[in-house]
Design goal:
Elements (H helix, E strand, L loop, with lengths): L3 E5 L7 H9 L4 E4 L8 E5 L2 E5 L12 E4 L4 E2 L1 H13 L7 E4 L3 E2 L2 H14 L11 H9 L12 H14 L1 H4 L6 H15 L3 E2 L1 H10 L4 E4 L26 H5 L8 E7 L2 E3 L12 H9 L12 E3 L1 E2 H10 L4 E5 L10 E9 L2 E3 L6 H4 L3 E7 L17 H14 L3 E5 L7 E3 L7
Parallel strand pairs: 1-10, 1-11, 2-5, 2-10, 5-7, 6-8, 7-9, 11-15, 14-16, 15-19
Antiparallel strand pairs: 3-4, 12-13, 16-17, 16-18, 19-20
Helix pairs in contact: 3-4
Length: about 425
């Protein structure tokens, strides 16, 4: 098995949790490298449904090490709560490791996140209000606090005081105080201390021993801070390129990138969405696909598959193979539309525009493909799919120039077709 990165190829919510969990048994180490508890990776297996926010999807394999990388921002209270919930379903989390130089989210970051959204009013970004952006702001401003700082109480308290000074404007009468936060985080630090490691050294030594890594991304390429639909993006790198600095590993050791895409397109929150459907199809995708955010519970906006956007993600994300999820949700829709081009002011736009002001007024042009009525949720071989479903997959491959290696035909881990075994063996 090659060192493999799994990233979202749309606006997040593509099914990274399922695919990562499905693949995780083939690897020695599963590592998150960016984002925080704004991620919502749902894993369904053996009749159980588990929602993960910080913790990688390999946590249920007790013989696999799961790492929270240095590129992440971590809410310690939520992480400890997540660990307790996992223990209830049989994952003791003794195989969890936390990078000592991952940055911490504090209560004032969450307050700031909500207040900033309120200030934006009609131009809200649609954040999860979990403090992700403000925590990354402090990291970039070089006043952030990292996990390893908790074990040096004097300097931690001094740094915390300076950090809180910068967010005084949002705290008001919230009741937050330096002493209370300081004491709370010292206590939580003691609870996680045994899991804390030098992640870069750990990964380096593991690779010298021939161990293989599965690198689990968060959000999606179109939410990337540089290449997403800015400003309606997250605050971190969502492409496989973020895995190297997010773990302190050699980027040349990332040997395969899997891009996750739904068989249609969804988006949570505001921002441009050229193929959004406000009619019956959009409502059907929402209902049948159960399109509600794992983290926020918000209904997702739904629409046709945007191949112009997907091809862009394959290029920017250096995607080697695609994992196509929720193909079963399209059952009964005929014809199925796919966007292959935009039109702006009467002129063709053959490539995905990265500037929001150019993308917003674009109108999609569609190709219509034949649908199918057969129930495909029990199918485990590509050859057994209806001919029109196979043609749909092939159309995606031909347009994007990237093979589809995995096809998901239901939410359970086992409802998966391996179309290209060579990529995952």
């Amino acid at each position: 098995m090659k060192n493999t990165a799994v990233i979202g190829a749309q606006w997040g919510d593509e099914g990274k949790g399922k695919v990562s969990h499905f693949l995780s048994g083939k690897f020695d180490i599963i590592a998150r490298f960016s984002g925080g508890n704004n991620a919502g990776h749902t894993v369904i297996f053996d009749g159980r449904k588990v929602k993960l926010h910080h913790i990688p999807s390999g946590i249920f394999h007790k013989d696999k090490i799961n790492i929270l990388g240095s590129g992440m921002v971590i809410n310690l209270a939520m992480l400890l709560e997540e660990m307790e919930e996992l223990k209830k379903v049989g994952a003791d989390c003794e195989n969890l490791r936390i990078a000592e130089n991952a940055h911490l989210i504090f209560p004032f970051h969450r307050l700031a996140d909500g207040r900033q959204e309120e200030i934006r009013k009609d131009e809200m970004l649609g954040t999860t209000r979990r403090g992700i952006g403000p925590a990354y702001t402090d990291k970039a401003a070089r006043c952030g606090i990292r996990v390893g700082d908790l074990f040096f109480p004097a300097s931690f308290k001094s740094r915390l005081a300076k950090q809180m000074e910068g967010w005084k404007w949002v705290m008001g009468d919230s009741g937050l105080s330096l002493d209370s936060i300081y004491q709370d985080y010292l206590k939580m630090g003691k609870r996680i201390e045994k899991y804390v490691i030098d992640a870069s050294l750990f990964v380096h030594e593991a690779q010298k021993e021939g161990k293989k890594l599965l690198l689990e991304g968060a959000q999606g390429v179109l939410l990337d801070i540089d290449w997403g639909t800015y400003p309606y993006v997250t605050s971190s790198c969502c492409t496989a390129a973020g895995a190297a600095p997010g773990l302190g590993m050699d980027p040349r050791r990332i040997e395969h990138v899997v891009g996750i895409t739904k068989a249609y397109t969804t988006r949570i929150g505001t921002g441009p969405f050229p193929t959004e459907d406000h009619g019956d199809v959009g409502r059907q995708l929402l209902a049948v696909g159960a399109e509600y955010g794992t983290t926020t519970g918000r209904a997702r906006r739904c629409g046709w598959l945007d191949l112009l956007m997907l091809k862009f993600s394959c290029r920017v994300g250096a995607i080697d193979s695609l994992a196509l999820t929720k193909l079963d949700v399209l059952t009964g829709i005929d014809p199925i539309k796919v966007c292959t081009e935009y039109v702006l002011n009467g002129k063709s736009v053959p490539d995905f525009p990265v500037i929001e002001s150019r993308l917003e007024p674009c109108e999609p042009l569609y190709r219509e493909l034949k649908g199918w009525d057969e129930d495909i949720t029990g199918i485990r071989s590509f050859a057994d799919l209806p001919a029109s479903a196979r043609s749909y997959v092939k159309f995606i491959e031909d347009f994007c120039g990237v093979p589809v290696g995995i096809i998901s035909v239901g939410p359970d881990r086992d409802q998966t077709i391996i179309k290209e075994p060579a990529f995952y063996s």
